[in-house]
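[step 3/7] inverse_fold.run input=structure_tokens len=286
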């Protein structure tokens, strides 16, 4: 099937083929579901229409931050939770968290979120963890906000103008650079860093306003000498990066999805505007 034969529509595009990874991409037009086979970017389609600001997956569940609510589902239908408009969503120790309207809150579901009608609210309650404004991202137990980096309970971790975090290291993406935690927060990369991610196997990527950077597999630590610029096949501004078990995925603001399973980067344009985030939910979605 050629590029011109695939259309954007609301139907689910199933990804149950062997060796297929499913990505979800948050865009201004909606949530896109994208199939990746090895490093070939294949079929895609919208599974939720309307502005989506963030998306995060865990254990077969997918949380979506939309202009009107946090929605919870399993990949093809997303039910409201009653949070209200959200800027960011994330998972920590199996629990869903969201940020919006000056607060970070935790959702306690009552029953199985997968059971119920598409428009039926997920039974459960939101409990406030802390009060924070202008939250940009939730990553594990870290909150990246305009005022800096915080824990979910509001404990301040330092820095300013935080954009993203990788709690595994930890790494922090900010408006003036990438930092890693050593003897305090140490310089890793200069520039406006939009996104950062790290995998348990040592892989790490960071996206600045003009380039994608990768941590060298031979690097000792995460300092300035550890990072190299990635030569990508497509122009655009990378806004998010994610790791799968055997591949790395990225997406640009202009709507190009990129994948690298070890033999170089492949790319494909989705033709969707205002791309913000991507998620690789893993087992149970696809």
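[step 3/7] decode complete -> sequence:
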């Amino acid at each position: 099937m050629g590029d011109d034969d695939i259309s954007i529509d609301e139907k689910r595009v199933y990804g149950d083929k062997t060796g297929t990874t499913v990505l979800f991409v948050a865009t201004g037009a909606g949530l896109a579901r994208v199939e990746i086979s090895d490093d070939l970017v294949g079929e895609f389609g919208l599974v939720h229409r309307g502005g989506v600001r963030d998306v995060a997956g865990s254990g077969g569940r997918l949380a979506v931050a939309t202009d009107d609510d946090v929605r919870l589902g399993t990949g093809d239908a997303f039910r409201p939770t009653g949070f209200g408009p959200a800027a960011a969503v994330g998972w920590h120790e199996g629990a869903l968290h969201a940020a919006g309207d000056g607060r970070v809150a935790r959702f306690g579901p009552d029953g199985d979120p997968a059971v119920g009608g598409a428009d039926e609210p997920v039974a459960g309650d939101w409990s406030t963890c802390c009060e924070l404004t202008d939250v940009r991202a939730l990553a594990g137990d870290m909150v990246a906000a305009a005022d800096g980096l915080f824990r979910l309970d509001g404990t301040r971790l330092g820095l300013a103008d935080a954009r993203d975090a990788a709690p595994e290291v930890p790494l922090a993406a900010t408006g003036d650079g990438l930092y890693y935690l050593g003897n305090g927060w140490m310089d890793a990369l200069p520039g406006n860093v939009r996104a950062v991610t790290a995998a348990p196997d040592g892989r790490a990527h960071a996206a600045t306003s003009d380039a994608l950077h990768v941590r060298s597999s031979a690097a000792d630590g995460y300092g300035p000498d550890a990072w190299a610029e990635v030569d990508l096949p497509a122009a655009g501004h990378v806004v998010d990066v994610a790791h799968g078990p055997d591949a790395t995925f990225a997406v640009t603001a202009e709507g190009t999805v990129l994948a690298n399973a070890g033999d170089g980067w492949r790319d494909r344009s989705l033709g969707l505007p205002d791309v913000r985030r991507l998620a690789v939910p893993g087992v149970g979605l696809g």
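[step 4/7] annotate
The chain has one domain: 3-164+236-279.
The domain at 3-164+236-279 is CATH 2.120.10 (Neuraminidase).
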